[in-house]
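Attaching the record inline, Q. Sequence:
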Amino acid sequence: MKVVAFNGSPKASGNTNSALEMVACELRKEGMEVEIVHVGNKLIRGCLACGQCRVKMDEKCIIKDDNYVNEWIQKMKEADGIILGSPVHYSAIAGTMKSFLDRAFYVMGGSAMLRNKVGAAVVAVRRSGGIPTFNQLNNFLNYCEMVMPTSNYWNVIHGTTPGDTESDAEGRQIMGVLGKNMAYLLKLVENGKDKVAEPELERKKYTNFVR
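Structure, as predicted:
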């Protein structure tokens, strides 16, 4: 089984990456392949709200200038599990990561590409804003009917400069427990595919309150 993790930090080897590696360590112990993709150092423009991905249904964002977004969408489609990692910028997801997620999940949410895949979110923060950012990342996973593993606390680890997270004993345990629980859930999903029928996919209903 394969898991793809996305590092939304501008820093390739910062605390967000450390958190992802802590989770990945437990997954690899269970024989799972983990790839960490660095998103935060790329130039990624925001969603144009053009709706063309829902019209064409070709699993692609219409923007071509940063085509790695479409490459990452295919990585998520092929993976069994997905991890979203971000630092905290003003109590929110880092900007580049947010632009990527808005576009990727709008494409995938319309095609059920992520439905019943295992997805988790992790956050690295200096002091405050970790929970709001964690909740924002979970919004993407929830929208696509993903299955979400948990840990023994919210998936937030603390540190200022790269390497500080090693001193956050509780945070390290949170990431480790998350990795173990994610591996367990991935196995349950894989082993249950031929034994338990998935709920029937329902066509999304849209209700507008302004007439």
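DSSP finds six helices and five strands in the chain. The helical segments are 15-29, 52-56, 68-78, 95-109, 130-143, 169-192.

More tomorrow.
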